[in-house]
Amino acid sequence: MLIERQFVADVATHGKQRQMTGGIMERQIYLDHAATTQPAPEVIQQMLPWLAGRYGNPSARYQLGQEAGRCIAGARKQVAALIGADEEEVYFTSGGTESDNWVLRGCLSGRKDGKRHMITTGIEHHAVLNTCAQLEREGVEVSYVMPDGEGRVDVRDIEREIREDTVLISVMYANNEIGTMQPIREIGLLAAEYGIPFHTDAVQAVGHVPIDVKASGITWLSASAHKFHGPKGCGFLYMRKGHELPSLLHGGAQEKGFRAGTENVAGIAGMGAAARVCMAHMSGDQESIRRQRDYLIQKVESSIPGARLNGHRRMRLPNNVNFSFSGLEGAALLLLLDQDGICVSSGAACSASSGKGSHVLEAIGVPEEYQRGAVRMTLGPETTREELDYVVERLKEHIFQLREMTDA
């Protein structure tokens, strides 16, 4: 792979030179919606007043502050409606990572019954996995359930890990890399049967698929606004009534005393608007995106030899396409596509700079040769078939080129 690594360096250098000389790509096709989404126009419109004239602190008692407080209350209703929750069960955070940490640490904080065991999966987002690793260093026992070859966990495998001292089951709603959706309702029923709280990291699912936290038996749910056309740096945690967690951040009395710190009013306003937009358009948008997703999968499989679809073919997010291609390095392919104005990723955006392989692909048994050549393409409402045809055309050409270099 020495020749190919040099090629990666050459392409990267060329890209920087283009940027330095003011080169502008003729087109941009964005297929990385799992990493982040473009804020909807309604979101930006809703945020702007709270960044300018309506800048009051929502804890203040004068009118300027009370306006901000009413804005937060309205957004809370909109977010709650998106997931079938009551508004008083929604707590605003800085995003999915904080929400995950709040649950995993909170369910163990101050326990006097000696119970220190939790169950999760081996394909969780690193916000969960790295927090679990730290908790293990602090004496917590964690059981990791592994998925099948399509990324689905078996509820029976979860049940086998339940112990008398189990305090939490945490399973992500849908995987951020391969898009596989988990049997959330069945897991919720299992957790309820054993009287164990159930948390789901739903960062990739909220706003993209219908969610009913009550019907699914979810105790806690984490979400992040920028994954469903809201702003970055803002998220929420759903906490079912009667299952409020100890504070993760201590200070003032914001969020009913559970989450200290002056609220991000503009961000919360934007997230509320994003929730409203998603509710209005989810059914139509996701059916359209699902058709585009299936078209892309069919096009790749029929056009490019040695393409392996990762994740479940049916039980996957409407916008997720994850392929592995044999005989090449995904980093080189991504750089070439970037030169074409095509934005894709090789996996989780927050792990892209780590230099490590995908723990998800490894967990589902993808051969190492294919792991190196993984590409994740996640579509949005604006993605057109003409764009997908162009992407497949460029994929086919670059993969042929890279394979030739590897065989040289």
Please characterize this protein's 3D structure.
Helix 2 runs antiparallel to helix 8 (265-303). The protein has helices spanning 2-20, 41-51, 63-83, 96-106, 126-137, 155-161, 184-194, 265-303, 330-339, 359-363, 368-371, 385-407; strands at residues 29-30, 90-93, 117-121, 141-145, 166-170, 198-201, 220-224, 235-239, 307-309, 320-325, 342-343, 374-378. It has 2 domains: 2-39 and 282-407, Alpha-Beta Complex (Aspartate Aminotransferase, domain 1), CATH 3.90.1150.10; 41-278, Aspartate Aminotransferase, domain 2 (3-Layer(aba) Sandwich). The model is unreliable at 1-24 (pLDDT under 50). The strands form 3 sheets. The protein has a 7-stranded mixed β-sheet, sandwiched between helices. It is an alpha/beta fold.
Question: TL;DR of this structure?
Answer:
With 408 residues, the protein is of the alpha/beta class. The chain is built from 12 helices and 12 strands.
Which terms would index this structure?
single chain, 408 residues, alpha/beta, Aspartate Aminotransferase, domain 1, Aspartate Aminotransferase, domain 2, 2 domains, seven-stranded mixed beta sheet, three-stranded antiparallel beta sheet, 12 strands, 42% helix, globular
Describe the SSE topology.
Blueprint: H1 2-20, E1 29-30, H2 41-51, H3 63-83, E2 90-93, H4 96-106, E3 117-121, H5 126-137, E4 141-145, H6 155-161, E5 166-170, H7 184-194, E6 198-201, E7 220-224, E8 235-239, H8 265-303, E9 307-309, E10 320-325, H9 330-339, E11 342-343, H10 359-363, H11 368-371, E12 374-378, H12 385-407
Parallel strand pairs: 1-11, 3-4, 3-5, 5-6, 6-7
Antiparallel strand pairs: 2-8, 7-8, 9-10, 10-12
